[in-house]
Amino acid sequence: MLIRKLEEIRGTDRSVSDKGWESSRMLLAEDGMGFSFHITTLQAGGEWTFHYQHHVESVFVISGRGSVEDLATGERHELAPGTLYALNAHDRHTLRAETELVTACVFNPPVTGNEVHDETGAYRPAAAAA
């Protein structure tokens, strides 16, 4: 059994920050669960374009308001507490935070914790990230 506390993850090498967001990686590939689990906080007023070409991701909004736009279709969806969106087709998307957004995110395959977004907004596959 694994027990982790968010306040113990923040400030460690499992906490990753970049341009207006911070992600506390509660579970990583090394934990052997087959997925990774993150609590991610996005700053109010931020906008990010991501394209996870090697991962699928689901995102559950814990608090805050914003939107996610599917860049293939132009369809935009409002985000509020209790909303989940899943990038089940490696969807290229833009995420916008009207207020601070706190989300719970699951990645498959799991991230290792060493990934950084490349120029396309993707994480490289785990084998290439190591």
Automatic annotation (TrEMBL):
Pathway: Amine and polyamine biosynthesis; ectoine biosynthesis; L-ectoine from L-aspartate 4-semialdehyde: step 3/3. It is an enzyme of class 4 (lyase). It comes from the Bacteria. GO terms for molecular function: ectoine synthase activity. Keywords: Lyase. The keyword Lyase applies. It holds the Pfam family Ectoine_synth. This is L-ectoine synthase. Its EC number is 4.2.1.108. Belongs to the ectoine synthase family. One of its GO terms (biological process) is ectoine biosynthetic process. It catalyses: (2S)-4-acetamido-2-aminobutanoate = L-ectoine + H2O. Catalyzes the circularization of gamma-N-acetyl-alpha,gamma-diaminobutyric acid (ADABA) to ectoine (1,4,5,6-tetrahydro-2-methyl-4-pyrimidine carboxylic acid), which is an excellent osmoprotectant.
